[in-house]
Amino acid sequence: APNAVFAAIDIGASSGRVMLGRVPPTSGVSLETIHRFPNGVVELDGGLRWDFDALFAEVLKGLTAAASVAATNGERIVSIGIDTWAVDYGLVNDAGELTAQPYSYRDERSRATVERVHAAVSPEKLYAATGLQYLQFNTLYQLAAEPNLEGLQALLIPDLIAFLLTGERRTEATNASTTGLFDAVAGEWATEFLDALRLPRNVFPPLIQPGETVGTLLPEILDRTGLPADTKVVAVGSHDTASAVAAVPAADQDFAYISSGTWSLVGVELALPVLSEASRKANFTNERGVDGTIRYLRNVGGLWLLSECQRAWAAEGYTQALTALLDSAAALPAGGPQINADDPGFTAPDNMPDRIRAAVRNTGAVLPDRPAAVVRCIMDSLAAGYARTLCDAERLTGRSTSVVHIVGGGSQNRLLCQLTADATGKPVIAGPVEATAQGNVLVQARAAGLVKGNLAELRELVAAGTELERYEPAGALQSSRS
Ligand code: LFR
């Protein structure tokens, strides 16, 4: 039989990719990028939205290219797994049509509905059941802003892609856990809140777990892509952060992780949720991970701050390469001004350098105008936010951690990794940069019976296939291969 390969569709806030993943039995995961495409929020129909039609066209382009690469290699694409950012959804009618381009969580329409939702169900009650951190854009607040849900179903973005590929409507559980309508203990929809918020019982399709089969491809998708008729869509940790955490190459249980990209997701993995009032006040979340684990974490601001600054500087004609900018930032002395990187005031796209300077001014300090100074402020602030959050996670869970794994785009940022080691006082192990796609592929490979084992064993495969970089705390800029 031809060699089995897996297609991973992994779409982030700023770019998407279709990859082929190969999983030899003992030597790690290898990923081949087949198609890469840009993504970003767009002003459309009076709101900040995702151009979903364009994204889906790119997905089909990528799958078509993947089919031809596999055919040329004599390989068989066993299944397709899909992950994207969380909370956002498209509304689909009975005929299966997407009724509008999905809103982005960066749109501010849900700000006005928070009070109404909390009047119907108190934040304490919501947290005690769902364990979800409060973010103004959680799905429940967005749904409350919909004028009319009659005859419509909300499909989270990865589920919407899976639906268009297979015709099957499901809600993948790790992503369901970011809606604010999912019971963290039972692992089921919190139907009592659907009623209290006057949301239809079937506003979401039924749940599906990572590793379960969503369905086979629709005839028109087979025609468009040239994929063979037995290709399946398999549910993975469709929340990108769930897939990334599944691929943290941790050797022991006492690890902390930072999934560092547009956002930084900072926390630990637990077997059971922590739903205490102290946890709610600290705004920690209990999102669901692969294999029913709990991703106990907090959203700390992320490299969005940096990418938005770069966008603003490029518009002014300043185009220094990022590596040079980071080198200049690294050369600046420690102890400069800091901001609170998770301030919701940074969520919307707008002139980021000005907003950062204003935030520094509010602390009584002054931030020099030079881009390098702004970049250093972002890095110092992120590292401080990481350290603060890890301390809180240890306190709230009663656990201690001995190492911090950084995965995702931020793992390539040497300055950020070193500052994180210094701020946390713990060694940082950086990589893989494509943890999300690796987690996506590994869950598919396990569903196909190609690899066996629990998360710890999947993580060994990631470690075997990645060159990890280790940063020691202490200020000294020493780093060594581990
Ligand atoms: C990261 C992420 C975070 C989620 C945010 C919005 O890509 O999925 O986990 O809080 O995006 O969906």
TrEMBL record:
Keywords linked to the UniProt accession: ATP-binding, Disulfide bond, Kinase, Nucleotide-binding, Rhamnose metabolism, Transferase
Lineage: superkingdom: Bacteria
Any one GO MF annotation of this record: glycerol kinase activity
Carbohydrate kinase FGGY N-terminal domain mapped to chain residues: 8-245
Domain Carbohydrate kinase FGGY C-terminal, chain residue ranges per copy: 256-448
GO BP field: glycerol metabolic process; rhamnose catabolic process
Cellular component, GO annotation: cytosol
PANTHER family, A to Z: L-RHAMNULOKINASE (PTHR10196:SF93), SUGAR KINASE (PTHR10196)
Entry similarity comment: Belongs to the FGGY kinase family.
Protein name, entry field: Rhamnulokinase
Organism ancestry: Bacteria, Bacillati, Actinomycetota, Actinomycetes, Micrococcales
